[in-house]
Amino acid sequence: MRKKGRGMATIMFGFGYGEGFPDHSIAEIEITTDQKIKLRTAGADVGQGFLTTMIQIAAEVLKIDSSYIEIVGQDTHQAKNSGSTSATRQTFFSGNAVREAAEEVMGMIYHHGSIYFNSNHPELTVKDGEIYACDNKEEKISYWELAEIVKQKGDNLQAEASFFPKTYVPDEKTGQSEKNYVAYTFMTQVIDIEVDTDTGIIEVMNVYTALDVGKAINPQNVHGQIEGGTVQGLGMALMEEQVIKNGITINPDMTNYLVPSIQDIPEFESTLIENEDSDGPFGAKGIGEPTLIAACPAVANAVYDAIGVRITSLPITPEIILNSLEENNN
Asked: What is the DSSP letter of 170?
């Protein structure tokens, strides 16, 4: 017999290293004379779309198409510290560093542009990589032409920024602090399942997610992280079990340590909530790790809804389902 169940879970996640640990990220932007804008960041893109997001932030500030921006380096010989790609921190920290570096360069564009036009900052307009005099749109100069003029003066349209937010060390006695993390991400998930009471197999049918992202700089990336993180959480909830005997892992391969495959992926419906209430770039929050946390409690609640048995250990395997049903019937 197949029984349906629906479970819900809501989580809160503080991102960044937290607990007063000092944290920062450095980025550099340079407008060259060959119609390129070089962006230097040592942040590692591990598949979450980090580099795409950094390019978008720089392009937004510099008012130019993202195709002109080129990532340089990705190692510590060519770019300064961006911190680890962990703690759901890169969009917040490196994103702010990139934004601030781009703002510094934009300030230089207006400064040198006003000299070129013999004008004042408010009398200039910047759009699509060109600087205009407001009263004469035909009179303009491109970023690259301006970079050449500035270079001839012995200077560059180049800036480096370090984003280093204030952190608060927790009280030694209470463990409390004024602000334990730089910001918090909130997410609610509702998961529909079907439990086969003859085999104990759980099939996840639908996942509905509402995620507080602050600002979705790249919505497609955010939806991808919701789906990827949730599938990872479903693996933890239903199948990933490390078996240890006498201190030795006896299922160290992908044959016996099961992870979700394409056949296990449910239907997703996700809603992005944009409050822009954090200090991240344009209000963006970190959303990497939060996307995998709610799946386990939501699945456990759905199992309880389906079969009336509360299971408190993971993973919830078919054997555990069958044993729990047998104990419940007895």
From this structure: P
Q: What is the pTM of this model?
A: 0.92
* pLDDT of amino acid 237: 98
Place of tokens 């380096």: 73
Span 25-163: which CATH code?
3.30.365.10
The two structure tokens encoding residue 73: 């380096």
Query: Is there a catalytic annotation at residue 289?
Result: yes
Of 140, 137, 119, nearest in space to 129 by CA? 140
- Fold (CATH) for 2-15+178-329: Aldehyde Oxidoreductase; domain 4 (3.30.365)
Report how far residue 18's alpha carbon sits from residue 170's, in angstroms, rounded to the nearest whole number: 10
Residues of the chain with CATH 3.30.365.10: 2-15+178-329, 25-163
pLDDT at res. 203: 97
Neighbour-count burial for 240-278, b at 16+ CB within 10 Å, e otherwise:
eeeeeeeeeeeeeeeeebbebeeeeebeeebebebeeeb
Which member of 227, 289, 319, 326 is catalytic? Answer: 289
Over residues 132-147, the pLDDT tens digits come to 988 777 789 999 999 9
